[in-house]
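Hypothesis: this fold can be encoded by more than one sequence.
Test: take the structure tokens below, design a sequence, compare later.
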């Protein structure tokens, strides 16, 4: 008898909690789950570089004096150090090559690598 009565009370308790009003059901449905919808991040915005498009006298002097002393010379390194744009850096490399201040290590269509001209 004790076992049967326990089973009965468990069933009764389940039925007693079941009837809910429509408002309560709607509230329960909206509050469940994760809550707020996840927002997309804006992503990292890279700062726009204000690089020179023509050499001024000071920058050209720096190109002739400092760049040929570097062990590794690429257009991207020249662009970064002298704050000039990429096309101007490529022209600078050609200028240094024609003057014999640097020599080619690898000339690929995508990336050219140069070094200082050895005095041997």
């Amino acid at each position: 008898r004790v076992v049967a009565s326990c089973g009965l009370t468990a069933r009764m308790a389940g039925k007693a909690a079941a009837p809910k009003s429509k408002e309560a059901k709607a509230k329960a449905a909206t509050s469940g789950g994760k809550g707020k919808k996840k927002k997309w991040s804006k992503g990292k915005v890279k700062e726009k570089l204000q690089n020179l498009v023509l050499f001024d006298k000071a920058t050209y002097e720096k190109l002739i004096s400092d760049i040929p002393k570097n062990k590794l010379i690429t257009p991207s390194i020249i662009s970064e150090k002298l704050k000039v744009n990429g096309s101007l850096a490529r022209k600078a490399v050609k200028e240094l090559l024609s003057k014999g201040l640097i020599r080619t290590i690898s000339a690929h269509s995508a990336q050219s690598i140069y070094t200082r001209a050895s005095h041997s």
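The helical segments are 2-17, 22-31, 57-66, 75-82, 86-99. The two ends are 109 Å apart (CA to CA).
Hypothesis status: open.
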